[in-house]
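Journal club side-thread
Mid-discussion, someone asked how the predicted structure for our own chain would compare to the paper's figures. Pasting it here so we can look after the session.
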Amino acid sequence: MGIKQFAVLGDPIDHSLSPIIHQAAYNLLGLDWIYSRVKVNESELANFLEENQGNYAGLSLTMPLKAELVRVANNNGWQVAEVAQLLGSANTWLAQAQGGQPVVTNTDLIGAKTALAALPMSVGSAAILGSGATAKTLGLAILQTNSDLETLTVFSRRPEPAREIADLITTLQHKAKFEWLPIEAAADFGGADLTVNTLPSKVASQVEVDLAFGDSFVFDVTYDSSDESLANYWPVSNRIDGRVMLVHQALEQLRLFGAFEEARRIASQDAVAQAMLSSIF
């Protein structure tokens, strides 16, 4: 066992809550592990991974590195999990793997599905603000957990990235109808059962929305708690906190990192998840 090094990579990275929640889990499990933040941009990722393969047992990756990680992995012949290939993005890099080669995977999907499980009803219509890697992951999560979904609308600056979300409907042979609209159209869209915001807080705060109605729900994955948060258009009871997704994708990373196998103190995954949530709420 002993001390192992882990980190979250991204740019910007100072805002990341990952070190807090991972350290909370280490404390509960009695692990002498270290988890830090490292600023790395897309152009630096390949060299960083090559130069640091022996320094880290595992890595978490956030914006804007998730699609780039899959590209780097494919270029190097590393194992890429099926879910990461399907999404074209990964948020987890594992140093120890079969054949001595790193493995990359995506735990965001598990986190998203866990968060969506809080919804008290089936979703017939969903709207997603944004079309990046996180938006595609949420699109897949919504499609896989709502077989009766009828419409999936994506609001973004350009239609091309949103087509990747539309392609998921075809891949899954889902009956949902896809619609792309420019981000400005959110001002008079009329609403959906579920609205998902994946836009950074500064961008989302500049978007006029008319998506909240009746018993509709919002899932703001940015976990923005400021007065400018898009979630403020909805009553508190109709909001899904993005920190739930953050914690449960991290919980799956902990499992992949071997935290429960190497733990010096026994704790259930539910107890660890609660400790992680408590550290940031």
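Post-session note: Residues 5-106+244-280 form a domain with the Rossmann fold fold (CATH 3.40.50.10860).
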